[in-house]
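I need you to check the entry underneath: sequence plus fold tokens. Let me know what the token row says about the fold.

>
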Amino acid sequence: MSDEPKAFSRAVENLIAGFREVPEDKSRSKKRKTTDLTALIDELLVKYRISHDSLEHSIREKWPELVGVANASYSHPVVVERGLLVVLVSHAVVRNELFQHRESILVKLKKLPGCEAIKGLALRAS
């Protein structure tokens, strides 16, 4: 047996409130069981990789070295999806330049730790 009291239905809670002459609960939301805050924060840190450097963050730091400073100012790596690095490009000339040099960029990219599985670049207009 648990030490927690049994939860009553809303109808029963309102009936008891009527007997005790306190206001009834007319809200439509259900009461949820409370969770431990430290466990919740730990779960969020793992889920959103807050305490760890993400793969995308490592790529963003090295991006000017990978594509050159001029191209890096008009392009931004966003996310790795299904083996492709999605890159937002704000200028058509830079997009064409990245497309022309995508193989050499991939060679440099695969030398970064954790980036060995990246198969290609997906260039998208931003």
In short: The first strand starts at residue 75 and ends at 81. The domain at 55-125 is CATH 3.30.300 (GMP Synthetase; Chain A, domain 3). Helices lie at 10-20, 37-47, 55-67, 69-72, 92-100, 102-110. The beta strands are 75-81, 84-89, 120-125.
